[in-house]
Structure formats: C-alpha cells, structure tokens
Amino acid sequence: MARRRIPDEVGRTALAEVAAHPAEGGPGPGREVTATAVRYLLQRLAEDSPGNTVEVRVPPFGAVQCVPGPRHTRGTPPNVVEMDATTWLALAAGSLTWADGIAGGSIHASGQRADLTGHLPIVSPE
Q1: How far is the C-alpha of 44 from the C-alpha of 48, rounded, in Å?
Q2: What whole-number distance in Å separates Cα of residue 44 and Cα of residue 121?
Q3: CA within 20 to 30 Å of 89's CA: 35, 56, 62, 77, which one?
Q4: What pLDDT is attached to residue 102?
Q5: Is residue 103 scored above 80 in pLDDT?
C-alpha cells in the first residue's frame, strides 16, 4: 500500500511547529505534528535521492528506501540507517552532522553504503 504524499505546505507547517519547540524543556509539538514532520522529511529524502540501496528508518514514524545503486529484493536490506525522531529532524535540518550523529551513537548505520552525508541536509536551517 502506497503512502499518501504529504503536501509541501503541510510538511513545512509541521517543521515550523517542531522548530518552535526547543528539544529540551517545555512541552513538545505533539506526536501527530512530530510524525508529520518526520514523514515529510523522509518523503523529501526519497524524492531527492531516489533508489533502493539504503533503507532509512525512524521508528515508529516511518521508513523509506533511497539512494541509487544496487537494489535488494528480499529480507532486511544490506544498508540500513536508523535513528529516533529528534535525531532525524536535527540531521535533516542541518543542525546535526552525520559525523557527529555517528560519533555520538544517535545514528545506527550498517552496510557499506549506509552513509547519507551527501544527501543531507534536506532543508536549510532557519
């Protein structure tokens, strides 16, 4: 079943609301807004870097396959990147670098091609 595409206006609104809430202290933007922002950025990654070589997972909100190259057809993909929503939002917005996320242990990447350095950030930090 294909996911419904998140319109740019809806995605940008969710991103703005997430950005308005500091990561630490105070109430956050809410699960639904966070989920929309995460899914929108995953969608943008898949659109900007189409392919099936790397699977990017942000549980429980979503996962996409992206990056051109060899395609897997069965089982767990050989190139998997997984992180939590806060890490994904920071990485996609450019406020966290790939190297810092890997070094800090907030990004888990396995496989020879599981490196998104050339595909990030997705949106510019504001």
Answers
A1: 6
A2: 11
A3: 77
A4: 97
A5: yes
CB 60 within 8 A of CB 85: no
Task: Please name the amino acid found at residue 13.
Answer: T
CA distances from 77 to 9, 20, 34, 36, 81 (A): 32, 35, 26, 25, 10
Long-range contacts at 43-49 (CB < 8 A, ≥ 24 apart) = 43/3, 43/5, 43/6, 43/11, 44/11, 44/92, 44/122, 44/123, 45/92, 45/116, 45/119, 45/122, 48/119, 48/122, 49/119
The DSSP secondary structure of the chain, one letter per residue, reads: -PPPPPPHHHHHHHHHHHHTS-SSSS--S-HHHHHHHHHHHHHHHHHHS-SSSEEEEETTTEEEEESSS----SSS-SSEEEE-HHHHHHHHHTSS-HHHHHHHTSEEEESTT---GGG--SS---
Provide the pLDDT for residue 24.
61
pTM of the model: 0.90
Kindly give, in sequence order, each residue whose CB lies less than 8 Å from that of residue 50, ignoring residues fewer than 6 positions away.
66, 68
